Amino acid sequence: MTSAVTYGHPAIAQGAFPGLPNFTPGGPSVMMDLRPCYEGFAGIPQEMRLLFAMFSGFPLRRFGGLASGIHYTSRRTKPRTPFEAVMVQTQVLISQEIKRTHWKPGFNAMPGFIKRRIFRPYLVLTEMFRREKLDLKIDPDMFADYLWMKLFDRTLASRDRGFLGRAEYFATELGHEYARALSLFPRIFQRRIDSQDWDVFFAGSVSPYKLSRSTATMIRYYDTLPLTSPHTVGEPWPHALSHGRMLQRNMADGASFYCDSEPVREDLLRLFPDAEKRVHTIPVVLAPEYRPDVRPQHELRAVLQRRASAVTETKPSERGEVPRLLMAVSTLEPRKNYLKLFRAFEIATRMAKQPMQLLIVANPGWRSDTELAELKKLVREGTYHVNGVPLRELRMLYSMAHCVVAPSRAEGFDYSGAEAMACGTPVLASDIPVHRWVYGDAAEYFDPYDEEALARLLARTVDLPRDEGKLADMRERGLRRAALYSPDALAPRWEEAVLNIAARRAASTASLR
């Protein structure tokens, strides 16, 4: 029997979701940008789903989700009948699915390679100076399946679907990626949103939008890596330029930033030292589904088989005992430091007495060709590589790993170590400021640039019994540390932040009248 999942508010904990939103007279109105929720199982998309569920229980007059996707444009027409109103919504949702681009009559007949070359200038010419009102609603009853499956299903439990009715949902004509493309141009071309009906706009990253003056902006800020580690990012110049432009404009517009760790806050203040009063730290919220969940070996082997990566042609053995697993979870990209981990593992196998194997849970990411080639070699020698792992299966993998390794050279928070601790698994982490801040004394640390030191630590750890002595002590410390990042622990901080921001903006707006 599974325990009840809570998101840090009594109404949510009790499953008290009425059919209609339960408004709080006198409370603020809050709109959250749900764009990250379209993107994946873990990391930032996961936290944004948890925050949306959490915020739905706050004392708000009105709560909304901006359900615009990433790559699309969809010109709307003013509906005159109920049928036309539904068709407008259907067109927007389909446009997000097929990455539809709107072209004026005559342009659509051009060859694809020409359209790709002229799209950004075309976008500027057709969208500049346009102000879009946040009034394109998505009916949460008629499109409940779309909203749940596209935005929330990959993190939240099915029994929590009732919270859909606590919010309104909206879309914009222009997808987030195209609004971001406009940020590469002078500010006069920035996408303008008429948000005057909303007190607070909450974005899961730097935002490409210019909002109404009466709306306060809260930015959930995860890291400065596009600016401070450009050598680890794909398409570094456009990525750094668009991130930097949006960041600079959000700062100039008076946005408040909520960093996921104190080292990220310090990095941001190095760039904007005068913004100290507007830059805060609230740690990442972990999904309450992460908890110890040790299963029989045949269930572990079934997940390893079912989620085996086709990219590396992983073919796990169907027989025999699964060796002690050293697990790493993150996207394959340079800053994650997988190459050092792979080399350290090969050295450690010659040092350790106990049989062991790597378990890599990762999709290929930016600049990952070298990492992928090395991983393919290890897979041929027995390494497990899985991807597309749902939260509940990932929980079991964490729980049954001998330890989890977090080898990154740069991070904003690093979910994998905290999630592993919540599942009762010891963590070995690279000695970087973020890891020290997030994991505290619950992890064992190593130099991320010294593969031989890491190899010695891997060998020592795999030879220790997991349920007694040092690793048992690390388990207990890890469980206590992970509790700091539970929804119950962090919901009061988020509620206070939202209400304070709304109150300050209301007072500021009133003083201008």
Structure commentary:
- With 513 residues, this protein is an alpha/beta fold.
- It contains 18 helices and 17 strands.
- The strands form three sheets. The protein has an eight-stranded mixed β-sheet with strand order 4-5-2-1-7-9-10-11, sandwiched between helices. A six-stranded parallel β-sheet has the order 14-13-12-15-16-17, with helices on both faces. Strands 3-6-8 form a three-stranded parallel β-sheet.
List the helices and strands and how they pair.
Blueprint: H1 10-13, E1 29-33, H2 44-55, E2 62-66, H3 82-98, H4 112-127, E3 131-133, E4 136-138, H5 144-152, E5 168-171, H6 176-182, E6 191-194, E7 200-203, E8 209-210, E9 216-221, H7 225-228, H8 236-252, E10 256-259, H9 262-271, E11 279-281, H10 297-306, E12 324-329, H11 338-349, E13 356-361, H12 369-380, E14 384-386, H13 391-400, E15 403-406, H14 415-422, E16 427-430, H15 433-439, E17 443-446, H16 451-462, H17 469-483, H18 487-511
Parallel strand pairs: 1-2, 1-7, 2-5, 3-6, 6-8, 7-9, 9-10, 10-11, 12-13, 12-15, 13-14, 15-16, 16-17
Antiparallel strand pairs: 4-5
